[in-house]
Write a structure and sequence with these properties.
Residues 1-76 form the DH domain. This protein has helices at residues 4-15, 24-48, 54-92, and strands at 109-121, 128-139, 143-146. It folds into 2 domains: 4-91, Dbl homology (DH) domain (Dbl Homology Domain, Chain A); 95-149, no CATH class. It has 3 helices and 3 strands, in the order H-H-H-E-E-E.
């Protein structure tokens, strides 16, 4: 998004009739779609092969290898999404001191959300309750509390 030249070239390519007005994202997802279609093809081949034949053994091996490949692809996609979430969060959060590295290979954001903190002022004669928003970010290895910048 920050490179205007790249954006211009990308818009020109995406508007080309050869691309059929498809975005870059749709071209990037095509290999994953093909892999899942191959799985369906192999399932149909396995249904039509004679049980116990050499063809069934080979089709089963191919199917198992494809299953492993699909599982690896899905795990890598999840890992990249998790890393993107951490990068986005690290850009939004300012630490008073940088002793906590938010982005880590093993760290994943599990859940996040806004809560309301209640502050009781016990110094005044009447108990005054004030509220302020806080955010909880639950990672697989720690819990981070944050508040909006004032």
């Amino acid at each position: 998004n920050g490179n205007a030249g790249f954006q211009h070239v990308l818009e020109r390519l995406e508007s080309d009739p050869v691309c059929q007005r498809l975005s870059l994202k749709s071209f990037l997802i095509l290999p994953f779609q093909r892999i899942t279609r191959l799985k369906l093809l192999l399932q149909n081949i396995l249904k039509r092969t004679r049980p116990g034949s050499e063809e069934e053994v080979q089709a089963t091996q191919a199917y198992d290898a494809l299953e492993k490949l699909i599982k690896d692809c899905n795990e890598n996609v999840q890992r990249m999404k998790s890393t993107e979430e951490l990068i986005y969060l690290s850009q939004k959060i300012e630490f008073e001191c940088k002793i906590f590295p938010l982005i880590s290979q093993s760290r994943r954001l599990v859940k996040c959300g806004e809560l309301t903190a209640l502050d009781f002022n016990t110094l005044s004669p009447k108990w005054k309750v004030t509220t302020r928003p806080i955010y909880l970010h639950l990672f697989n290895d720690c819990l981070l509390l944050s508040r909006p910048k004032e």
